[in-house]
Specification:
Strand order of the largest sheet: 5-3-2-6-9-10-1-11
Protein name: LAQU0S09e03510g1_1
Number of strands: 11
CATH class: Alpha Beta
Pfam families: Glucosamine_iso (PF01182)
GO molecular function: 6-phosphogluconolactonase activity
Organism: Lachancea quebecensis
Number of helices: 11
Structural class: alpha/beta
CATH topology: Rossmann fold
Radius of gyration: 19 Å
Bound molecules: ligand LXAUTJHC
Function: May be involved in regulation of tRNA subcellular distribution.
């Protein structure tokens, strides 16, 4: 492994992380909805692009062949037309609005602490075109959605249920099939079919390509539900989604999108905060040869990776810190107070 240094944006406090991450997400949204072909120009980062999806194979339900996809989508999409102009989005001219209508912003969300960051950063903004979002999950813990450990459940309670959908539209949300939580392999295969339907379209593709893949990183080094030393999962290069059993922390049964899927995204962004994360961040940044999952992604998606980290998580970490420059031109009057979180 070569030493690849990602962009690391440092922040004095949590609130700063939340606002910067929101700006970064909205910028990715605007790029995805307005640019054809997709370009990373002006993102403040590298202009390298993901590997080309020239191969026309999709993984089958077992991750090894071409399987027919027949199950109806489990996504919830309550159609709601939404005007970009009314939303406060700035930038796209009227000639581009037709294109915008046809496109969706495809984002993968992790669970854990990221959800609170997005809650604080995104809900108060008026330029989030929620109705144009296709939301997938980087991983899921196989627990009922009502559990406080469910990534989809928490996202629903802390973000999705709080969106003013009459104004901003309703995102399409692609979550696991809750009836399969007792069968990790079946659940992973089923979620992979969801991805194939969402990304393969009429043709088929080698890998899905998210506009933005948001990741956290736990103190033990796991990202999504890819754990250090689970080498079979970390090396998986056919399946898009893998089952995880015997996870060493949190719920033991999970499913996770794989490293090739993560690395194929247009942008991969880590959001990490808190002093408990400092040791693992140090290892990731200073000892990439240890092969922690984040280091694999730093290398595999080199030039498209950004880290948003608070100072506590960067304690004693030798890395070049950058100051985040806000990219979306939003004046303060467009930001409304965050809605209350239901108990
Ligand atoms: O178990 C999980 O943990 C990771 C990291 O969570 P954090 O709270 O330490 O940020 C999370 O990204 C993943 O989605 C989740 O299932």
């Amino acid at each position: 492994m070569t030493t690849t240094v990602p962009r690391v944006f440092a922040f004095h406090e949590f609130a700063g992380v939340a606002e910067a991450v929101a700006d970064h997400v909205v910028h990715a949204q605007n790029l995805a909805l307005s640019k054809e072909p997709y370009s990373l120009k002006n993102t403040g980062g590298s202009n390298s692009t993901p590997a080309n999806s020239s191969s026309l194979n999709v993984p089958g339900s077992n991750g090894t062949g071409n399987a027919p996809v027949s199950r109806q989508s489990s996504s919830r999409s309550i159609g709601h037309s939404h005007s970009a102009a009314a939303s406060g989005l700035r930038g796209p001219s009227s000639s581009k609005l037709k294109k915008i209508k046809e496109k969706q912003f495809k984002i993968a969300l992790s669970g854990g602490s990221l959800i609170q960051v997005l809650h604080e950063g995104l809900l108060k903004r008026q330029d989030v075109l929620w109705g144009k979002w296709d939301i997938y999950f980087a991983d899921e813990r196989l627990v009922p959605f009502e559990s406080s450990e469910s990534n989809f459940g928490n996202t629903k309670r802390k973000i999705l249920d709080l969106i003013d959908t009459r104004t901003y539209g309703t995102p399409r949300v692609y979550h696991i099939n809750e009836s399969l939580i007792n069968d990790p392999q079946e659940c992973a295969d089923d979620y992979e079919k969801e991805l194939i339907k969402g990304f393969a379209g009429r043709d088929s593709v080698k890998l899905p390509m998210f506009d933005l893949f948001l990741l956290g990183c736990a103190p033990d080094g796991h990202i999504a539900s890819l754990f250090p030393n689970f080498s079979e999962n970390l090396r998986e290069n056919l399946a898009w989604v893998v089952p995880v059993t015997n996870a060493p922390s949190g719920p033991s049964n999970r499913i996770s999108l794989t490293i090739p899927v993560i690395c194929h995204s247009h942008q991969v962004t880590f959001v990490v905060e808190g002093a408990t994360k400092a040791p693992v961040v140090k290892t990731i940044m200073e000892r990439p040869e240890k092969g922690l999952p984040s280091s694999i992604v730093n290398e595999g998606a080199a030039g498209r990776v950004a880290w948003f980290v608070d100072d506590d998580a960067l304690t004693d970490v030798q890395v070049t810190k950058k100051k985040y420059k806000f990219l979306v031109n939003t004046d303060a009057s467009q930001i409304s107070p965050s809605p209350p979180v239901p108990e």
